[in-house]
Amino acid sequence: DQQVKQNSPSLSVQEGRISILNCDYTNSMFDYFLWYKKYPAEGPTFLISISSIKDKNEDGRFTVFLNKSAKHLSLHIVPSQPGDSAVYFCAASADGTSYGKLTFGQGTILTVHP
Amino acid sequence: DTGVSQDPRHKITKRGQNVTFRCDPISEHNRLYWYRQTLGQGPEFLTYFQNEAQLEKSRLLSDRFSAERPKGSFSTLEIQRTEQGDSAMYLCASSYPGPGNTIYFGEGSWLTVV
Prior knowledge:
The complex is a heterodimer.
Chain A lengths: L3 E2 L4 E5 L4 E7 L4 E9 L6 E7 L4 E4 L2 E6 L4 E6 L8 E9 L8 E2 L3 E6 L1
Parallel strand pairs in A: 2-11
Antiparallel strand pairs in A: 1-3, 3-8, 4-5, 4-9, 6-7, 7-8, 9-10, 9-11
Chain B lengths: L4 E3 L2 E4 L5 E6 L6 E7 L6 E7 L2 E5 L7 E4 L6 E5 L8 E8 L8 E2 L3 E5 L1
Parallel strand pairs in B: 2-11
Antiparallel strand pairs in B: 1-3, 3-8, 4-5, 4-9, 5-6, 7-8, 9-10, 9-11
């Protein structure tokens, strides 16, 4: 049962354009969502997060949008840079003592072309 | 370096042998997590500690796996009688407790069982 899904295995964009990565979830108990970036042979690096009480969170070039009714979140990167090329994972967590028990999607490979 | 530290970074072992991984979390983080990642998949939760107490274990953590955090600081993950299916990246992460606190991952320990 894949509770967090990233349906696009890969995304290719031109430098300077917007990258939009999507994520869907099924568990209505999830109330905290995170995006991580991962290079090969390295651990995930935290990018940005959002609580379910918000619908948008912005940090520099990165913005995460949450649509609770659709159980959908997206990560926008503007402008995209070649250094953003990596695998992006969305992750979700439920509240309470299980916080930190993250459920990850399968990842989306982002390639930003110069 | 004040990040999450894992050792060894790479381990090749013969099937049936025991292996142990060590994780040193960010100091003062009292939550420590273990995840496993296989190729093409997102990380999967294995277990987590708050201080020295192991609070939750995934069903992925078979009887051959044991994790400890004896003094509430570093943690070890031991795999006994390794099988080829254990080949994966083992990721450690740490955080303060409670929602809204970022979960930081280490660079991972690659295990190859031959």
